[in-house]
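Q: Here's a chain of 737 amino acids. Please give me its 3D structure as tokens.
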Amino acid sequence: MQTAAEPVPDAPAAAIPRMAAGDARTTKQNGSAMPKNSNAAKVDVSYGAEMITVLEGLEPVRKRPGMYIGSTGSRGLHHMVYEVVDNAVDEALAGFCTEVSVILCENGAVTVRDNGRGIPVDVHQRTGKSALETVMTVLHAGGKFGQGGYKVSGGLHGVGISVVNALSSYVKVSVWRQNMEYSMEFAYGKPTSQLVVTALPADLDSGSGSNFQSDAPMRCGTQVTFLPDPKIFTSVTEFDFDMLAERLRQLAFLNGGLSITLKDERKPGNISNANASEPLEGDDETPAEQSRPNRADSGVAGKLPRTEIFMYEGGIREYSAYLCRNKTALHEEVIYMNETVNDVQVEMTLQWSADSYTDLVLGFANNIRTVDGGTHIDGFKTSLTRTFNSMARKLGKLKEKQANLSGEFIREGLTAVVSVKVPDPEFEGQTKTKLGNPEVRSIVEKVTSTCFADFVELSPQVLFKVYEKAMNAFDAAQAARNARELVRRKTVLESSTLPGKLADCSSREPAEAEIFIVEGDSAGGSAKQGRDRFFQAILPLRGKILNIEKAEDGRIYRNTEIQALISALGLGIRGEAFDVSQLRYHRIVILSDADVDGAHIRTLLLTFFFRYQRALLENGFIYIACPPLYKVTRKSGSKSGGGTFLFDEAELRAYLDKQANPATVTVQRFKGLGEMMPQQLWDTTMNPDSRRMKQVTVDDAAAADALFRLLMGDEVAPRREFIESHAASLDLDSIDF
């Protein structure tokens, strides 16, 4: 799960001025907010061909980097590494690479090294330049489009290495092939040197083993070193070891036998905590990233350089075991399928857990995580449901007059990895999060049906256990039906009777409306008085809501605070397809105190959103407000009055360090939101022009699922281990005892 603390998309709210009593608001006419006499509606006759700007080479990348790497924050910075690594993995998929290393250099650069065939260096007949220079400086140039290149590749768009070049202040590429070393340097996407050719010694080592981790030449392979341009990545320029490790571990699981090494050569003093503590307006960090201990502050820093090697001979079978490491297996043997049909490789694992009541189906296409699913996931789910029911009837579990079990009950507790390798993948959207190849669906259906039926024939007891769990899920759903119907009858018109005391906004446009979920009537009162009533609603909750990680549906729907949330937001029923048209607010803001209880309430609410309607997080509707922790004022007699609001201990220390005479400063610490006056709450936390806010999203469903299970589940031992392992990263001075 991630929180993006870069500027929140506040356009709808920011465009609405704060309204005093008696103010009138301009209404839209005919779907447009443009005044009738606006000059913007007139055609400029001087608009001609000379006003069209043509960007050549890699200029478009530097002009609009977000179009190519998603963002210029932390996510985009780390995506640069993934693009180079993906090229090495493509070599592995083609059968020419067994080792990849990623080195975080002391100067902030990254080196990616592989023992593949090496980038071609002969002259490209179309560009007249070496193939090396061509792939580094031309978009859509690579071995991924013609028939003579890679048969299967994850870099469909062919822009990876050239984009990295464009967004770096320095790049050096070294290629070893045909007993020669070829090297070339670049800056800001343009060559700064000619292609330098050097003969290799005849007795040169192959480059495997420990020598592979050095900077020495190899018999064959490629090494790319790049330094991200700080003018592009203005908010963050340091790489997070754990974030890179998460992705590289996943790639190693998906490509069994491939060894991927991640090494951190940075010195402890050079790794600051900037990624987690810089001003929120410019940050692009994620909740998972900000909660991680920083290497410089955590006690782990003294152990640098840090190295981790990811290599899994078992491939996705070991991945399944890793995903289920904190769950109780319903059956011992992981169900494994691996077939190739019409050049499409289908590899899958299935593992049901006795103590899990949700499913986790991870889809991959050519090593790319398909967050939004696609034809391979559709084919898998359809075939699994059909084949399970067929085998259950064949083995006498389902009687003739019994209806088939639906897929949601069969998949309860299932962890599945579905990985396909497709020669010509068709992804929907530039982000490649959904596979669109129609032929893949039928292939996956066939493989699932055949392999699952064969497994059940040999191990029928597994089907019996899954059948019992599915029937329990069906019975539980039936028992919760009455409670669900009660929620269905709850309408927004009944909001006046909600226990949460919803104070709605006057706007009926969900895109411009936002709701603050606050703890208690005291904070709720200040928020109601300080808000802009036109687009801001307030929903106070009484105490801590139910932890739904441990609760059955019936108990969830009987809980008054949960009912208040469901009705106020327009969420509908758990498990039903998300209907964004029913969502009453497109900005759902968690506003809680900056103490331990407030953090617990945030965690309970995030658990509710993740388990009840994950699409709210996936679509970026959930936010966390960041109220200030301190108010600093000058004592009477000082040159200026007023006050300054500071949001954490670090900001307070920095402020006091800048004061010539700290004795003239009075520091007030807000113990809770209830201590703030309504105007203070508006100025610091609710005003779109001045507030700080984090947007919460989910990039890695598996990691988020594991984290919620660990923090909010029944198992105490893993939670204790998690706390102990992160204890060194705590700043004891900032804890509110």
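Q: Can you summarize the key feature?
A: The longest strand covers residues 168-177.
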